[in-house]
Write a structure and sequence with these properties.
The structure is a single chain. By secondary structure, the protein is mainly β. Strands 2, 3, 24, 25, 26, 27, 28, 29 and 30 form a 9-stranded mixed sheet that branches. A 7-stranded antiparallel sheet has the order 39-40-41-45-44-43-42, sandwiched between helices. Strands 1-7-6-5-4 form a 5-stranded antiparallel sheet, with no helix packed on it. A hairpin with a 5-residue loop joins strand 22 and strand 23. The longest helix is centred in the last third of the chain and has 13 residues.
Amino acid sequence: MRLAARLSTVLVVGALVIVVGLAAGRGLNAVRQTPEPSFEPFAGPAASSNGALALPVQCDASTAFPGRFADFAWSPDSSILAATSAPSGESLERIVLFYGPGWKAHDIGPGRGPRWSAAGLLAFERPDRAGTLRIVDPHSGQQVAQIDNTSAAYAWDGEALVFFRGNELRTWRDGTEELRAVVGSSYAPTKPYLAQFSADGSRFVIERRQNAKIVEIFFGASKGGRVSPLAAPLAYSFAPAGNRLILDYGDRVTLFAEARASATIMKTEIAGTFTGWSPDGRRALFRTSSSALLGWDVMRVDEVARTTGGSAGEIAFAPNGRWLASFSSGSLSVAPCADLAADPRVKLTRDQVIQLVRSRPDVLGVTKIEAKLVLWAELERNKTRFITFGTADTSAPVWLVGLAGEVRRPPSWNPPVGAPETYPLGLYALDATDGHELAMTITIGTWWIGDGFDDLHEYGTLPPAWTPPTSPYPTPVVPVDYTVTTQGASAVVKSQGGWSVAVPKEWFVSSDPVRFGAAVVTNYEPDVYGSYSGLVMPAAPARMRLTFELWSNDQHAGLGDWVDRAFAGGMTRVVSARSSTTLAGKEAVVLTDEQNIGPPPLGQQISRVWIVPRDNATMLVVHALPFDSTALGDAEHALATLQLAAPAAAPRATVTKDAAIAIATGPLTGAHSTKPVATARIDRTEAKLVRWTDIRSIVGPFQGPGPGPLSAEPQAPIWVVAVAGDLGMTSGICRGEGACPSPAPIRWSVSFVDARTGAVRWTTSAGTDDWPAFFDALPDRPF
């Protein structure tokens, strides 16, 4: 399949003839010359679209349709396949409906890009009038509506048709148009930009191509019309149901799921080529070297179907999973799919493989043992967890046997010094045909949890219902120390820390909850880049992230001296450029700051940094990442609107002294726990109410008055609660080279409690002395 050419299904052809009405239908089968008064109403569906479908299925005996086609779409009840036909010698494409199960063809007139609504209405574009959409009712053969001046991007959101008109995202329903959202003018889907919607109309992609290659791509939500730039892929595809999107980057593919977070898998891990989607739209399908179609749903890999022919190129299952349409080089075919009988490769039963593992000489005892039949592809993705690992076809069935008990370590294993001779967990992968060992591992623990065993679902069964984990990124605005107000084409972000800036209203604002007066402003939705995997998505040159932070200047140093201290070079930081500028009417410094905090690409961060004094005790530090973003000019325009003012009045304490003591001592006494805890003996407790500036001088938890982001407003009230007594023991865990420390008694503990919210900002403890020396020197301020 030519993925790059086929994943975007918009086909543009010159317009010569205007055709209206549906009555001019033509049959395309043997009765083509026989006049048809109209196309036929729906035949009864071949099967319920909601029926349970055992996996995998076998799809064979395909029926090829004569002619050349450009794209296709299944009706919701799986009984009709609509396709765009490109007849030889004709200038206009036509819409053809194939009625199952006999797949009798009916031409309903000029059109391209069919899209079905949930109730069975069909929308498509007129090839003779670009941007004009027709909505027809195949039951009656009548046109329901015609929509002019669109951007040729449309999809159904239930019974509402979502479409673009310039930068306006609009909906049509029951003859009425409504404006849903306005997309930022710089991303409007007009030339040279094109757009495409997800099947449910909730998401869209806007792309720009150059020399047939995607050079820019933006991912958006139709609810609000806001978009995020992505790294330009080779190709992309929306699922035929739901809203999942897959991006092809050559060596890897990235899948965006319902939680707006992405997962990435290397193509070598799945050993196949992307070819389509499962019937429910949840799993991206990959054709392997064998006849298997493997599905990946972010969390797991399973076999969805097998084909012996007629499935080359792009494929699409009917919603009920009982038909498989295949498209390749303009040819279109449909194959029936039936439940796959017992896999002839599986010759060993569950009981037999359990007995094989029980009888192994290295298995000394068993307290629990279970077996699952899985695909080798699932183990390939986790092969680093195994001590020994063999080879097999990705679609080969494998018995995975997990046991808890006592297992002797393999004689060939070279363990670390001091490793035990036996382990409580063993995991064995056995060939389902003859039982020979393909992979094994041993470890400590109580049972195989997660990818090791419990999280794998069995081959030949439906995967369980799955909900993506909540993304760790805030979305889209979580006001903490700032407000956001729309003013025309801009959004004004105003911080309680005394700064404000105007950014494009299409941009996103989120919080850094542990830093006072901070905000994160991006031109991409923050949680779009959350990931379920450790692989890094390629960088998107159009991305821009601005972080606004207030940094301390307790020593009232001049701007130049302060920058020298705060951005001193070293092993992990290089300031490669430095210049002066003016921000908010004040002298400011601009840096190019290179930090190496880990392996590239994320470990090497190069930022443009602006530093301007807010007052003689505080600096506003703005980071723009990446420094070479194509949107850097937008960031500079935003900073040109920067205004500085005095911070908001110092907050008042709302947490009482008794409440602060209860917060600090609760974990020690078990008062705030639902689990049994070893309670401590408390001999002495005292609390002082101080300002944040009072505790920044404490060496240890706060490292003195060095430059750094403020985690609280300088005058914010903080309860310092000191507790002494027999407070337990340290863990004694090694955290580096050298001898492990022995567990030691904890003699005192100090908690720093936010006097406004009750949040514990920090806790420190020690085993020497009977009381924290710094506590007595702190003032006790009345608020």
